[in-house]
Amino acid sequence: GKDELRPLSHRGDDRWGGMGMTLLDSLDTLYLVGLTDEFRRAVAWVETSLSLSSVPEISFFETCIRALGGLLAAWDLSGEEVLLRRADELGGRMMELAFQTASGVPYNNIVLGEGLVRAEVANTLAQVGTLQLEYRYLARVTGKEEYATAVERIVKDLGMIQPENGLFPFQLDVHMGKVKLAVNGIVTFGANGDSFYEYLLKAWLQGGRKEEYLRYMYDKAVDGMHELLVHTSTPSGLTYIAEMKIPGNIIDHKMDHLVCFMGATLALGAYTHPAGLESEKAQRDLKTAKALTYTCYQMYARTKTGLSPELIRFTPELPNLDYRYTADISYYILRPETVESFFVLYQLTGDNVYRDWGWEIFQSIVAHCITDGGFGAYKNIERVGDIPEDRMESFFVAETLKYLYLLFDDDAGEKLDLLNKNVLTTEAHPLTMLDEIDVKRSNLQIGRNR
Question: Tens of pLDDT along 219-246?
């Protein structure tokens, strides 16, 4: 019931509020890979041992994508009703506390057990724009439309103030009940901004491609990204997405590993483009998706361990050097974004190169991160032979291992239909698209009655 595994000391810790976060985040992974006994034991724990009454301060955003998303996806796959009941309990409690604001922008730090909130509201794009898939799904399966109304209001309000170039600074300013964009800020597809853009596209897909404002906001942002942030390195011609400081549109040639999710998102956006896959912009987006994913592969392939640093800084001022990174960011914490793009691009294109690259990265993880009790983060990706750290994030099982497994699962396309039936949350939790939910529930009921 601990939140995270300590793979060296064989203990756990409770850095996410003591909710059994790794178990909740990993439920659907257990189901998808066929670990039936372990899944049943985990469901039993959710029913008998998951308690919200003593949970201290937590992040609304992180708990939504990890715990709520994990419960919902596991129910979606298995039909175990206790999972939906506990998801409704958790989702309702969090919403009750977090949305006590005039602006509609939620508090991010909440204390479930005591019913308290910290005075500061969420102030980044990712915090307010990565709630929609989970709560819209919860609204549909419970009939509680207030879940969807609250999270949809945020995006609609942001749509009213989307900059002309489509790109939001990740910092938000909430004052006198209104949300505004920071005057001095940073535009990024990395930390604090990333999943907001992802959810614009995926919420549009989740809703049956009917909510045109979501696709409009996404396409406008991707146009701005190509115009201002997409660059190519020398001498190797690696494609990357830079950051930008405003005002002044000052480019910072830095790219987080987190940005590597955009390979998957751009490809998915291209294959579902309203003008068709062969349209000019869809082809542009697919080309960038493939090129960016190659860059992300190089972030692994060029290091001594075959593991990626947390971020890299491209060096246009040095024509003989593509990028560099310093010792303080040369760690690898088992991140999933690169293998996420491998999986999605393989499913969409069928190109075996993504399996080849995925196998290389998997071998590197096993070679350098495995312990006798799990897998640990690696402190310096340029030093071979170091002992992994005593820390394993819940997303390693929820995302990294899941994507690697599905990448090599020949039946993955039948389990998850990324274009028509399923949407993957930012934490890799598969949810049935809204128009398909009634069909899904009917099939589950028929299965029980046989």
Answer: 999 999 999 999 999 999 999 999 999 9
